[in-house]
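Recap for those who missed Tuesday's class. We walked through two folding examples back to back. For each one, the amino acid string is listed first and its predicted structure tokens come directly after. Nothing is annotated here on purpose, so try labeling regions yourself before you check the end of the notes.
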Amino acid sequence: MSQRESHEAVVHFYATGVYPCSYLEGRDARSQVAIPVELIDAAVYSRLVRLGFRRSGHYTYRPACDACHACIPVRLRVADFAPNRTQRRTLRQHAGLDIRILPLAFRDEHFHLYRRYQASRHAGGGMSDDGSQQYTEFILKSRVDSVLVEFSEKGVLKMVSLVDKLDDGLSAAYTFFEPDDVGCSYGSYSILWQREWALSLGLPYLYLGYWIADCRKMEYKSRYQPLERLFDGVWRDF
């Protein structure tokens, strides 16, 4: 399968082998991967995201499992979003955070926060033992228009979000935050802030990756409405 771009370059797709699903226990997974990575720039990636792809570092993929369709691409229509009471409380709670938009670069403080977050929230998972090289490959390697959004309080780093800029929106690629601050809602605040940023840029969508009905880690995405899902190649109300 291939897709011809205006500059006559061709992006190809291949299916990976089967591997254990990281979201649903006991399931096998398979991905469709776009190659070569050198051709996937910001414009091409924007088109791929609209087709349900995501990226991890230079690796651009979408689920292509043989007998499972649980991973549903979702996006928020930012102009129509109205925060509920809990989300308004989150906005007030974290309104004092200082925010910086930074280029992709290794920073010790970010890496140590990432390590604490993985050890606390994803202990035993595939990334809980990531070293600096794995962190760099996952967070800092990008051929698209990506930035790090840094959230701090009184000079203390609290959260970092990796965000991709697309033709028609922002893509919330990954967020990690201080795991020991009990009662905080950093992850929710990151989505709410990215929604406001997309709105200020005149972009219609915030892409939130995949929603999976039977995965508790993904259920939070359905709290942001109006949400659209990609079904049979068409974005529909969800």
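Example two. Treat it independently of the first, because the proteins are unrelated.
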Amino acid sequence: MNRKELNPEQSPSAAFGQRLRLLRDERGWTQDELGERMGCSGTHISAVETGRRPPTQRFATSADRALGTGDRLKRQSRAIRHTALLEGFPEYVTQEARAAEIRLYEVGVMPGILQTPEYAAALTAREVERGAITPEQGDERDALVIARQASLQRTPPPLVFVVLDESCLRRPVGSPTVMEGQFARLIEFAAMPNTVLQVAPFDMGDRRPLNLPLYILTMESRALLSYAESAQRGQLEREITSVVPMLTAYHQLQAEALSQATSVAMIDQFRKGTP
């Protein structure tokens, strides 16, 4: 029997298909046998393994159950479903939900964990209008914002440090009412006992050590993980020699940014329409 060669580099679906085939082969099962355990046909299994059919979350969950792989395949399927997201971001979000400390620096747009539903919807609507993403991808993006914010409500809550470039405040998104609500959300966030919110003003000039968004996580084990983005790609980094210089730059940014009290006063001025 000739089997189609799989190239996991071709796409996230191909990588998933190869992983599924390897796990099935390790158990000595045919596609029909795996399908029987999952409640689907062997033809369906074949289509997923060869990348002709993307795995749904339900399929991946069923495969994990049949193969005894925990949530391994379910997590891998997220990279396929979140096709509107940059590489590395779905995995970052998974780690963010477990982190003891979260540090964010954002430029031009409010970070997802702070976006109001109205602000997030306005951003998504514009992306869909431009054709940058499909309506379905837009729904996934909005759902991800909600899920990220919900994950922060765990006990004990993580420490969250946020530095916003001034451009985040000055860029209008949606209507004035949407922006007013977003500014109110920032002020509420700054008042929480486990958060710090600062603004990096334009007049920092060349004292600004970071120019692109940066996310840094400290896990309960004290391990560090960072995620940085350019316009075209995201990079998830676990190597300590690469993450520590980013953490150092983040601390330098915090030192140069406005204090929380001054930052909140600036945001309140924007909320009142008198920046």
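Answers for example two:
The CA atoms of residues 97 and 153 lie 10 Å apart.
The longest helix spans residues 135-151.
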